[in-house]
Amino acid sequence: MLPISFEFFPPKTDEQRAQLDRTATLLKARGPEYASVTFGAGGSTLSYTGETVARLHREHGIDVAPHLSCMGGTRREIAELLDGYRAAGYRRIVALRGDLPSGMASPGDFRYAAELVRFIREHSGDHFHVEVAAYPETHPQADDALADLRHFKAKVDAGADGAITQYFFNADAYFRFVDDVRRLGVEVPVVPGIMPIGNFSQLKRFSDACGAEIPRWIVKRMQAHGDDAESVRQLGAEVVAQLCRRLLDSGAPGLHFYTLNRARPTLAILDQLH
Ligand code: FAD
């Protein structure tokens, strides 16, 4: 079976919780390895991440991977979270630096994700399978692309078991990234992060902020469909399913879907893949 995982964000209202329940039920039927849940920087959604993984684990029977971002956090706070996740029986963590929320002055006890990974290993030994973030199109704040590759390697050297990439629409960027880090001696699996195209204008805003490039031909084709949401969705599913097929055919070890808590765009891609 195709190794897939799904990413959710923590819902904050009853309506959003009900939406996540519906989505989790539909997506669980596709046999994911696990579901990961994002973490808001600066502790603002700390409790929601824990609450959400607990719900997915207990009520939906899905293996979970809470994201843990260290920006703004202290060693003590992170240690408490790790102990709580361990006591709950979780075996996976996605370890990130996160971004400092505007207005927050102190970055906390950790500067980079590699330091967090090292701390997780010191504190919890080998209990957790640790995933880290990878950027085939280079992290937007990186000084240069080669330094970014070395910083990625530092996370693996610190003890990460695998990586999930930022989403991308250019398969060659992923292949190049994997070749480059293999040359640096990195052997862990690098799973492509896949962003289904649902709402195109939202995706464009998102992509500008996180440094993911949408190829001009996709932008132009999407713009040609204008407000015809159904055509945008159909074209989006086709384009992303083709990307997934190419990635898998060329050896990608699995797919991690950024679901944005909605089942339909991800299911449309999976249906085309099968
Ligand atoms: P790092 O690996 O620490 O890298 C950050 C930057 O610092 C890079 O530019 C790197 O080149 C540079 N750098 C690293 N080490 C050094 C060094 N020693 N000296 C100088 N520069 C260095 N954000 C959230 O807030 N919550 C989430 O749940 C979340 N989930 C994510 C999941 C995935 C799969 C991905 C790809 C991203 C996610 N993010 C999340 C976003 C992420 O937190 C941001 O992209 C953040 O800016 C960088 O995090 P990182 O873990 O990649 O940081």
Automatic annotation (TrEMBL):
Pfam families: MTHFR. Keywords: Amino-acid biosynthesis, FAD, Flavoprotein, Methionine biosynthesis, NAD, Oxidoreductase. GO terms for molecular function: methylenetetrahydrofolate reductase [NAD(P)H] activity. SUPFAM superfamilies: FAD-linked oxidoreductase (SSF51730). The keyword NAD applies. Pathway: Amino-acid biosynthesis; L-methionine biosynthesis via de novo pathway; One-carbon metabolism; tetrahydrofolate interconversion. It catalyses: (6S)-5-methyl-5,6,7,8-tetrahydrofolate + NAD(+) = (6R)-5,10-methylene-5,6,7,8-tetrahydrofolate + NADH + H(+). Its EC number is 1.5.1.54. Its cofactor is FAD. Belongs to the methylenetetrahydrofolate reductase family. This is Methylenetetrahydrofolate reductase. It comes from Dyella lutea.
